[in-house]
Design goal:
Number of helices: 7
Mean pLDDT: 79
Largest sheet: none
Number of strands: 0
Radius of gyration: 35 Å
Structural class: mainly alpha
Order of helices and strands: HHHHHHH
Oligomer: single chain
Strand content: under 5%
Length: 194
């Protein structure tokens, strides 16, 4: 197959120079494209009966792209609501994270403590996380704006990732550690240290 193709290409290039062949192919492609675009507008609607073909022409056409009217002005983007709510307090005044810890659901309590902290940071204007932002991304954003919070928030994020994603069994000691780390971040946040 390759040898016969090479011989065919050599025979064609002996007759027509490669530059001229490229030009002919471009012209042919342009002609086919123009006919395709305007087909069947140039073909008469009714053929005389003595010339009527016995076959039907295919109705293949590319869609015509036309502008219809003025472009619409961009609507103002609606204000995004905060992705996280501040600390979740239940009806009886207890924190959701404390109730989860009291039930022995320490992994969920650790997750809720981190969510509460991110909600408080968002409400204080320290960070504005979007939906889908990871805990590590929030910690990096807070560390860039308030370096004093980088240590305890990084520790809280690491503990959360180790428990929640690392499938490590959460214990009461882990919950107490998370409580102290998030408390330390809140203290530094209330001091307003840069």
């Amino acid at each position: 197959m390759t040898r016969s193709w090479d011989e065919f290409a050599a025979g064609v290039f002996d007759i027509v120079a490669p530059q001229n062949l490229l030009l002919l192919m471009l012209l042919l492609a342009g002609l086919i494209g123009a006919l395709w675009y305007w087909f069947p507008a140039w073909v008469p609607r009714r053929w005389p009966r003595w010339r009527m073909p016995r076959f039907r022409l295919p109705r293949l056409r590319l869609p015509r792209f036309r502008r219809t009217g003025k472009p619409k002005a961009a609507e103002p983007a609606p204000e995004q609501e905060p992705a996280f709510e501040p600390t979740v307090v239940l009806a009886d005044g207890t924190l959701l994270a404390d109730r989860l810890a009291a039930q022995g659901r320490y992994a969920e309590a650790i997750r809720q403590r981190l969510r509460d902290l991110v909600g408080d940071l968002s409400a204080a204007g320290v960070v504005s996380p979007l939906p889908g932002t990871t805990a590590a991304e929030v910690a990096a954003a807070v560390a860039a704006r308030r370096p004093a919070m980088a240590g305890p928030l990084g520790g809280a994020t690491d503990l959360f990732s180790e428990i929640w994603y690392g499938d490590r069994t959460a214990l009461s000691a882990h919950d107490e550690r998370m409580r102290s780390l998030t408390g330390d971040v809140r203290i530094r946040m209330s001091e307003g240290t840069p």
